[in-house]
Amino acid sequence: MARKPIARDQIVKLIVGAGQASPSPPIGPALGSKGVKSIDFCKEFNARTAHMTPGIPIPARVTVRPDRSFHFELRTPTTSYLLLQAAGVKERKNKLRGGMAAGKESIGEVSLKHVYDIAKVKQSELRLSGLSLEGLCKSVIAQARSCGITVVP
Fold first, then answer.
1. Torsion, Cα of 61, 22, 48, 113 (10° steps)
2. For labelling alongside 9, which of 1, 35, 103, 152 has CA 20 to 30 A away?
């Protein structure tokens, strides 16, 4: 007789606009396949992000337990979004997008002060609080280069 595998928590990672969660794709299918009612997640997510500017992409990590209950933690907005906002990049096809040829094409500039501010925002996140501010700044600068943003002193 085969043993039943031990039920474990399942993790679903989503990036949703603040205050704009709806049970349509991609949220509905991602949570529905795990047995969670997506409308419950959407109501709670929208309530937790009501104080934020609508539309900011917020990463959420949803943990689904074997009894189909769930909890989720919100993280700070993505680094690329913060960089593109600081550089003042215009939307293309209704989305903020980086440069097509990152090493060759520059789509904007940010100063070291912007980099420092973004690193401070990221350091407020619990999982990144142990890292030094200098290390986070280097990480933000590397992300800026990959987005096609020039960092000026």
1. 70
2. 1
Print the SS3 string covering the chain. Answer: CCCCCCCCCEEEEEEEECCCCCCCCCHHHHHHCCCCCHHHHHHHHHHHCCCCCCCCEEEEEEEECCCCCEEEEECCCCHHHHHHHHHCCCCECCECCCCCCCCCCCCEEEEHHHHHHHHHHHHCCHHHCCCCHHHHHHHHHHHHHHHCEEEEC
In 3D, which of 59, 55, 119 has the Cα closest to residue 86? 119
Bond prior to 26 in cis (omega within 30° of 0) = yes
- State both tokens at 78: 């993505």
Q: Which residues pair with 70 in a beta bridge?
A: 64
Burial label, 39 (beta-carbon count in 10 A; 0-12, 13-18, 19+): middle
State pTM to two decimals. Answer: 0.81
pLDDT tens per residue, range 1-12: 577 777 788 999
